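Bump. Still looking for LacI family transcriptional regulator structure tokens.
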Amino acid sequence: MSPRRVTLADVAEAAGVSRSTASLVLSGRGAELRISAAVQERIRAAADEMGYRPNMVSAGLRTGRTRTIGFVSDTVATSRLAGDMIKGAIEAARDRGFLLFIGESEGDAELEGALLEAMHDRQVDGIVLASMYTRRISVPKSPRPTSVVLLNAVPKTSSPLPVVVPDEVEAGRTAARVLLEAGHREGIHLIGVGPSTRNVPRDSVAAVERLVGVREVFAEAGVKLAGGALCRDWQPEEGFAATTELLSRATPRALICLNDRIAFGAYQALDDAGLTVPDDVSVVSFDDHSLAGWVRPRLTTVALPHYELGRKAVEVLLAEIDGTATGEKFHRVPMPLRDRDSVASPRR
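Sorry for the wait, here they are.
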């Protein structure tokens, strides 16, 4: 004979609270409804001791909720960005008692549509639609009313959907301030874009916004960029070629590389020219690639907050689902500076 299933009423009785209070705490809404920390701890301890497991099917029938979230990304397994975003999303969902269903579209619009339909068929309470890198997307139309949040993606046309993106403009400001604070005011070149906002890779939101932030801080300081080199593909070979071409006609004092992969190529070009980082040329970059702390000298970079992006997207989605959203539609997640060894004061 199988043991009797522990019920929510059993947990409530053991914790000395009402069934509704136990339900609110175990569904992750205790703090939101100002149930004291001591009471929440007592309820969770009783649930753990008794081995309580909620009946999700009956709860779904009663509330119209399945406590599941769909997460559809163009890349899942091949990118650190996607992996860390998913980890943040999973943990934020788990903290609120939700389960995450994950699908990968591989950038195929037809497959993406099929995945979204599959999520709807499973009656998810909401969907996070994510991109590997910040870009403008055409928001797929859905015949079913479901809460949706865009993660690392901006709609090409006006849309009511909430958006969660890295704060790329402030990241550009941060990179520029790093050089100004080190004393750089001349010979500063961009590798990857520019120097104007017309010279950026197509559809790259990060490129435009980082450049806006850089130019804003330098303009306020009365500093003029010495030049810029557009890289169509932000890979080491492009950074190497652009820096090599720059060195054939000028000797920079500092480089702002638009991502770390470009910076890795720039490092090699500078070394081939007999120049050292940071004694001859300072280098600052963006993203905090996994190798940025391993190259020598270690690369100073403004980090993409992978984990925090995923977590924030789920928090925003759950607020939409619960009806507690503030109405704010654009959520920018701060990008922290990783201050390492690649920036120094310019030589006199």
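The mean pLDDT is 88.

Edit: fixed formatting.
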